[in-house]
Amino acid sequence: MRNSNINDKLNSVFYPRSIAVIGASRRPGSVGHSLLANIIDSRYQGIVYPVNPKAKGILGIKCYRNVIEIPDVVDLAVIIVPPQFVPEVLEECGKKHIRGAIVITAGFKEIGGEGIELEEKVKKIITKHDIALFGPNCLGVINTDPVSSMNATFGTQMSKEGNIAFLSQSGALCVAVLDYAIESNIGFSKFISMGNKAGLTENDLLDYLKNDPKTDVILMYLEDLADGREFMRIAREITNSPTNPKPIIALKAGRTLLGARAASSHTGSLAGSDRVYDAIFLQCGVLRGETLEGIFDYVKAFSSQPLPKGGNVAIVTNSGGPGILATDSCIRYGMNIASFSPNTTKTLKKILPPTASLNNPIDLIANAQHEEYEGTLREILKDKNVDSCIIILTPTAFTDVEKIAETIVQVSKEFKKPVLSCFLGVYDVSRGIEILEENGIPDYRFPESAVRALSEMTKFTRWKRRPQTGIKKYKVNKSRAKKIVDSVKKEGRQFLLEQESYEILKAYNFPVVKSFLAGNERQAIEAAEKIGFPVVLKIASPDILHKFDFGGVKLNLKNKTEVRRGFQEILKKVLAKKPNAEIRGMIVEEMAPEGKEIILGMNRDAQFGPILMFGMGGIYVEALEDVTFRLAPIRELTATMMITRTKTHKILQGFRGEKPYDIEAIADCLKRLSQLVIDFEDIQELDINPLIVYEKGKGCAIVDARIILGSEKPH
Amino acid sequence: MRNSNINDKLNSVFYPRSIAVIGASRRPGSVGHSLLANIIDSRYQGIVYPVNPKAKGILGIKCYRNVIEIPDVVDLAVIIVPPQFVPEVLEECGKKHIRGAIVITAGFKEIGGEGIELEEKVKKIITKHDIALFGPNCLGVINTDPVSSMNATFGTQMSKEGNIAFLSQSGALCVAVLDYAIESNIGFSKFISMGNKAGLTENDLLDYLKNDPKTDVILMYLEDLADGREFMRIAREITNSPTNPKPIIALKAGRTLLGARAASSHTGSLAGSDRVYDAIFLQCGVLRGETLEGIFDYVKAFSSQPLPKGGNVAIVTNSGGPGILATDSCIRYGMNIASFSPNTTKTLKKILPPTASLNNPIDLIANAQHEEYEGTLREILKDKNVDSCIIILTPTAFTDVEKIAETIVQVSKEFKKPVLSCFLGVYDVSRGIEILEENGIPDYRFPESAVRALSEMTKFTRWKRRPQTGIKKYKVNKSRAKKIVDSVKKEGRQFLLEQESYEILKAYNFPVVKSFLAGNERQAIEAAEKIGFPVVLKIASPDILHKFDFGGVKLNLKNKTEVRRGFQEILKKVLAKKPNAEIRGMIVEEMAPEGKEIILGMNRDAQFGPILMFGMGGIYVEALEDVTFRLAPIRELTATMMITRTKTHKILQGFRGEKPYDIEAIADCLKRLSQLVIDFEDIQELDINPLIVYEKGKGCAIVDARIILGSEKPH
Description:
The structure is a homodimer. By secondary structure, chain A is of the alpha/beta class.
């Protein structure tokens, strides 16, 4: 339901001049009562009209029998009536020209059966009347912007004002989040329970939040994506904005519920749907959280601190244990323990007592006071080798915790580097933490959490600073490839013969080994002579998929005699096993020199389209699962990242004295593959296995390929 | 300092009849004041004697000038005097026959220089007087047992009574833990800040806690181990006790500080010291925590709930999102989502509304009341396919949270299966959580934390139920191996020739390929004929370690002529590159058939002794780091686990239609290796690389081996 005026309509939801609460109730504790009370109590800046045909007034406010009767323009309807009445109420809203609606009521899609029908009815009505709708089955919406100051939820708490927008597909999570946020001093700009997403989805919201001046960080809890490709487009616009990039942190649940689907290709069996989500998030710069707790740790830092320029962390502590735990975590999460410049160390030596440890982590010793913290913090933040700082304090009885907190606030303001703290208390540190958090220094209960947050910030920095690349467009012979695909379709086949797969790949200038289809022994020998010995022979039959198992392959044939004998032997073996197989001849191909075996593949997902895979060849690809996935089309950088993000990359770079392999040639193949599968929607699965890779500069060779067409046109 | 009466002396610390607080102070806020006040405020059941030559009385209690003057037996001295006076005070304690001491004072080993000397002095004094000492540089000790009720720390809080013992090597961590525990309703039996471990160590404490009736769970924060082998012995006694096994949970910090040491063998370079700790903990059943927060989640469950019999989890929720998050976590942490028996599903269908989801996770729908929770919980706990249960509640306005909490408490008591809860609140759930936790149901803020705790419990169950195996003792020719080692030592060499390594392995009946050392071409041909063609030729020279790089190896020589030519060619190449190399001849060896290449190794750690390694062969072993380490000697089960705990195992089991490999033969080699390196302390490093493994039943073959002796006797 995305269209041009969607943001205007969303403004009707977030900044309504007036709200009708349809189903408002006099009964305390009921949803219809809580909701109205929350709107009032949140000091909503517009006018609220309760609608309830049975009540004269609720909470001292005059009631209306229905929206039509309200003698005023209404921008937003909040609907709490029983599910069966929702369509009728929405029809009335339409007539009243209400542009925004929130349906709190449950009992729709989520209960199945007639609930699904009811939700379809709702969808039709909102389309007809052009209503922007949240829900059904949701908690409601909060906008903390003082201009609106609206809590249109039935929760018990109003959020603090802040710069984080929160979107959730689960109402229950919403409330847990609100509770936790209040406890943790986290404020929100907008807080949205999306419910069943019958109308507005995360994509509409992202598009709106992109330009919301009140929102700096976007946090989402998702169980699915309404439209993965569209999500990528909008999310990328946000995270990649040259002027105002905003981090998006997503917790995607249901990771493991679906499991890997059965598929006939390597790529298919490895590309579990959750891997696809990983790819989607990576490709559009969205940070994926692992746990609810983790994402809170992240937003606390993102919403209050500048991004680090790099991964060099300084740790300042006044006790050993927590400092070591922080150091451990830095290494675990891929951060560097910063090496200070000589000047820093020299100054630290002057200002710190002789028992202090001047190396990173800096241990100021138990009785450090604000002077030591101040001098140290200023010195290390000045150091160009330091990108960020974690400050740990475990006070003694004589530590002035508040003074140290104030010092940290003050010094950190002099620099544009993130500072995170971890005050651990034997003596009460709560006032110190308050001072820190009121002034935008996020404090963590455990040093590990602070490090994790810094690590996510660094990831976002890397994303923002990555080289911007485009999608390479190769000159290829598309029409030739199309001819082959069409002829296979005409035959009613799904599985292409190897030679057909080869021809398609050749049309896209992949480095396929030289090969010919030979109808008989004589042609095979001629082909072998053209190619040059040694050669490989492979049976060509639409009835035989697993050539090796059928004895349908002969390697390393060194002369005419061997080719002739090989031809005969293959024929004999194959026909013995499958007498009725249709034999179209044999492929005679170049025997490629040995190299490192790689697998490239593509699997077309019903929901997300073509997904590319890169991994090590052989049985290791599946046993070790050292593979990467990305959605096609891929940019140039993505092609490279698909390779560098694996452990295999270590080997390809030239491990233990081996020469480096031709990684660029692999990336080239990945980019061609991307173009091919975008050009041909008919290609359902594609495996290049193996791609043999040679020394850097010497390219690679495809010695086996398999293409499967879709049984019907994928959508 | 472990000896027979150590537990008696520890009783003097934990259950002293009287305490002298040496360095007690009148100044509020000082450590000497806080400590005395804490002893008094904790309602200590013995008598406390402040010692301070300058004060007449402190906190209303008569002061003594020194311990000698105290007109009573003193069991425990708590010492807070400045560091330089500590030795003198301890001497007095010795004279007073005080058996236990806690030195709170800092300024010892941790500051280096003279601090180290001072600590050495302390060690001598406590040995002389046979004093059991905690510290120096510690927070003190708490014993919540009402018989003693002693808080001999200078923290601000006394721990709740509980069944968890906590040992910490960091005082700062101690106090953070105490704070967190009080907030989280966690109680301790004993709470010990070990400080610099100049006297008592974790090993003494473990030995004591083993039989402490007040302690059911042991939690430790460690930065190093006083004696790794001894730790393993005692920890294993505790976790493996047939009558009263207690879980031990350790957070070992300093994971990454040391880094991998340079070493000349594969095993050495892979065996970073942290991997050794992993091995130690695994081999004695200690559960290793990753973060401070994690270990709290674990102990909450361990201390209050029975262990699950297996990994099948039932999840009961009244809202979708949190249920999905719990499910995701179960899969991530290796738990199974239980499949209910048909009877359970049948009954659930009867007692639950039609919109409820009866499959695991069971979704009771938002408005579920205690009747639904009761019926469901009882039904699934009855089900033999369910080993544990996580209950999630996100209440609505009409949910009776307290009633549901009471129901959970009551029903869970009917069964011996762990029940963990996660109450998430839109409406206040705090009273419900109180009811749960007071009755031993651990409640978690996030479903993920509950799952992680269950997963650790399941690990401990698996440890307890694993088959008990011994250390296999093979009949070997030890004296023959000794003769070779001695002769190499006599020559002053560290690196054994390959043939020497082979001979040692043969003496231990390893499956070394047939091989002979040939001094000239004729002998080489004779040897080849004895072995049978094809053969391999390898240069034998103490001056050439990297045979391949020097052209010192020829593979697959098929007849006499090839052997003769090979002999000449190797000689020529090697002498061209290293004209002065001492050539002892060539090894002629059987050309082993192809198989899967594995690497076995040993590296003798200065602190922990011989560490065995198993991993995949080739360059993958290092690039993918798919290796396991264990300390020798290994039990039979450990040998098997070294193999099954790798991803390589998937391949060895017969992956993608391959036949399974001879895993037992590998395990046999590992056990022989264990025996060999225990027998010969001189062996510093040993690599068998590769070990070629064949189909199940067909054994394996060693085709390259390298033994390095220690330059001095390791200790």
